[in-house]
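Slide 14.
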Amino acid sequence: MKIPESEQGSAGPETGVTRLRAAVRDQWEGLSASERAVAQYLASAPVEQLLYAGAQQLGTASGTSNATVVRALQRLGYAGLPALKRDLASGFTTEVAPEVRLKQRIAHVGRDLDSIWGEVFDEAQERIDIARRLTEPETLQRAVAALAPAREVFCYGVAAAELAARHLALALGRIGRRARFFGATGFALADTLLALGQGDAVVIFQPGRSLSELNILVERARSVGAKVVLVTDELGEAFAGRVEAVLTAPHTPTGITAESLTGLIVADALLLALTTLDETRAVESSHQLTALREQLLDPKRRS
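Slide 15: predicted structure.
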């Protein structure tokens, strides 16, 4: 088995690529001939090529089949191709400049509209499937239990995660629950932290990158008796012992689909669960919202 020289004996930090190549070396003797062909290709192919490839493409490139690709990945310790992409992407997105990744996306999809349409839907489906599998029912129950009795729910998100946080705060208000969005960083965050108190809950949307604000926010919540639910991709292990629940929202390995996609879906799951817990309040709030909208659309109704 030939492993690229740059990876042999490397003392650098462990990445998705080094983990993949280590798995290939460790499992090599137990692989069949066709599985070895897949493993050899995976170990030597550029990361960006693996991120954009489907199982069928990898099967063609390795001279095997998509079924063999899936079997080989499982023998190497991955649940499937999406799991491999997710592991590879964590290092790739921080090491490769955004403009370079954009050029790679363009080169990959080309200008064929059918291909573009399919790529977007395929990746979206992959991310949704992973999110569904990685969050256990017990984890969702803990998250809902933390939010249900909350005096007020603070929804935090910055940059791409802001959309999901804003969505959850707005939707919670529409079912009669007190909620607010906040996305401040630096000194500006202190004002919202001051308002956070006992009986409140915080939902943090942050796929990766452990910002210093996250640590301060979590510690403030713990010190005042507020509950915390974290919606993330890469930070679950780092915060697992300090929050009530960690819900997994996989980020995009390629940038083809919106970063906030899975965060929005997780927010909708939380919202529906909380709605069913207090149907009377949700219905009454919805009725009042409709009445107010009708007045705004037709000012004459106010009389």
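Speaker note: Residues 113-134 form the longest helix (22 residues).
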